Amino acid sequence: MDFAKTLKDYSEKLDDLLIKKFHQWENSDWKNSLGKPILNWQTVLEKNLIMLEISLPKENQTDFKIPNIKRPKLD
């Protein structure tokens, strides 16, 4: 966490996701989702920080429901 806190895109909101990501890498023997070994975790973390932030639920986000649109009848 100390390293993550030094990154430009770090936010405290990411703490839980960062811990999850660490455990995910640890449980997969330090391989990424494609099965390739993680050789420099700091670089990988820095490049993935934006994606982690995007995956956070948005504040004040309401559930978007697609409306049921009735098509007009054609003669």
Radius of gyration from the CA trace? 19 Å
**Morphology:** elongated
H/E order of the elements?
Answer: HHH
Provide mean pLDDT, rounded: 83
Count of beta strands: 0
- Portion of residues in helices? 40-55%
- Give the terminus-to-terminus CA distance: 66 Å
Number of helices: 3
Our estimate of the beta-strand percent is: under 5%
Largest sheet: none
Unreliable stretches: none
Structural class: mainly alpha
Overview of the molecule:
The protein has about 80 residues and is mainly alpha-helical. It is about 40% helix and about 0% strand. It is built from three helices and no strands. It has helices at about 1-5, 15-25, 40-55. The mean pLDDT is about 85.
A few lines on this structure:
The chain is mostly helical. It contains three helices and no strands. The longest helix has 14 residues, at 41-54.
Summarize the helices and strands and which ones pair or pack.
Elements: H1 2-5, H2 15-27, H3 41-54
Features:
single chain; 75 residues; mainly alpha; 3 helices; 41% helix; 0% strand; elongated
